[in-house]
Amino acid sequence: MGRAEREAIAGGARLHEAARAxxxxxxxxxxxVRAALVPLHEAAARAELDAMPxxxxxxxxxxxxxxxxxxxxxxxxxxxxxxxxxxxxxxxxGIGRSTADQVLxxxxxLAEAVDxxxxxxxDVDRPEPGTTALVRALxxxxxxxxxxxxxxxxxxxxxxxxxPLLDAxxxxxxxxxxxxxxxxxxxxxxxxxAEIGAEVREATEAGLPGLFAQTxxxxxxxxxxxxxAWVDFELRSxxxxxxxTEVSGRExxxxxAxxxxxxxxxxxxxxxxxDDTHRRVxxxxxxxxxxxxxLARRKVVLGDEMxxxxxxxxxxxxxxxxxxxxxxxxxxxxxxxxxxWTREIEARSTLRPVVLHGPARRHAFADWRTGGGVGVTTxxxxxxxxxxxxxxxxxxxxxAHCVKNPKAQRSQAVARWTxxxxxxxxxxxxxxxxxxxxxxxxxxxxAPELAASLTGADAPAGSxxxxxxxxxxxxxxxxxxxxxELPSLxxxxxxxxxSATDEAAYREAVRAGSFMxxxxxxxxxxxxxxxxxxxxxxxxxxAENGQKTVVFSAFNEVLGTVAGALDGxxxxxxxxxxxxxxxxxxxxxxAFTAAPGPAVILxxxxxAGTGINLQAASVxxxxxxxxKPTAEHQAVARAHRMGQVRPVRVHxxxxxxxVDASLVRALEGKTRLFDDYARRSAVxxxxxxxxxxxxxxxxxxxxxEEQARLGGASxxxxxPSPARQETDA
Length: 729
Description:
hydrolase, 14 strands, DNA polymerase, domain 1, 729 residues, 7-stranded parallel β-sheet, alpha/beta
């Protein structure tokens, strides 16, 4: 055998060793995370069991257990039952062997369920030795980035191929090996040498030796000091939690991650490939499924709840199609998030974003048509662009509920492009705001036949039937189902008794018959405003706790009043409203996020309630109730979203009686409708019309009721209790 064969074998051996090293280095980094996670997970599970009351044992056994005397003996939690064991239980009067065994069996079942579902939360404000160790261990994997995962996957495949080939090529490695080997073995050795050479050449052309070497360096670099690790965690917490979920193997329930799709649809999605060559970010399991759904079904609505990473899923689809040779894509979005889209495309993929907006948009459009890339434009600009004859591999429509009205010009423009493109991805966390018919109009752009089959008779069948009917084009997942790491979200309705000046301003608005003035009346006279006084208290308390606050209102006039009331109290950013250009809007958010201490940002609900990331804030104030539940949900989701590391507290300021009380009741009805039809739900009780009124009708009815009430007629609007009502979500 000659030198060429020996060099081929030596090159294969070096590549094989480098691949094995990468797999081993990654395995040790993963083991370090698991070693740090186990005690934290055990402590979290134990804490939950210690707080779990005995009544939960009855839930497991259908109420058949006799627990009289158990609580009186000091065993008042499931955790204490497990500690006590059978002997201690049998010492309790009335508890025999059989009952003791049943109690312990029920407690163990609950312990198993807790072990499977309990989540470890990393509190950035209260670091402890155990959580610090976990963050430092995770930092190694996060720092190595998605390239490390790609390198490990390639290395594992290469190791599996090269190992057997090197064994088979053994006789060709020395001068006399081939002489001593039999004919069959010599033939196998020569064939193996040829295959090794091909594997080495292919790996070298793909840059794998360098990738393996760099990945090993990254994995062996070691973690940073405690302070640096926590700072990085706060900046990239979504990546940390994503890796923690992957390493722990505690993925969300598969059915929930797949949006509870029918099995025949889900199975076709699972087998869909997803190329990550042009992607720079790792996906969570549910995100990968969402991208595959869009690819497999071609024209779909991705209706994930706010904060679950719909943008990343869209970029994953773009990257996959780009790897397949496609090079022209278009993203249509509100102006407020145009800058964010270009940033995300640049940061999370190798694709070229092309901004099709502003004075030079026609020149940019021509450049995009010839040079390709991801065109990013607004609904308004889209109306001025001709639908090109060239292939557009994917049309992404962000905040697609903006085109629910088929008569609107923006809807008609999107419909023209949708008809031209073979693949379309509508993205919205609120596919239906008021009526199921609005959702049907979205589906009509993507699948006219399906939309035509959804008649008014489908609605009374209930949400389960409705969701099944639209499953071919609609995928939705909720935060509670797939993001176990999200910190708590607490809503507080702050009912304030109107001051004398508030009452006077409100009566003037009612006499004028102005619904909007009625909604703003609580801020019309700032010097005596009860709501404004409570808002200052909330902001001051947040500042004392080192927290940032976002204040939302539907009205610029109210935001101006709030800015004046907070002047001198702490730094105030904004307001973010419809008049602020997209680039300036993002700059305001960046400044608020980068502020070193407590700060406030003011935002108009409809201008900043979509697409903008305000997770630097952990306190949210809604100056008044909105006319649509989705407006409030979107606003809160700007802060309570993937990547949030602190509990979020939401304060909704309400005046007792009058317009606020009526709106709160209307919101409750609309929220039920949304939950039944846009979220997964087993409730099938009513048609949409039974719980909904259109906004003009709502405003007219409230004005008439208030004019009657304040004019001396019997009150038709009950006054809610001024006590503050809190609910946890």
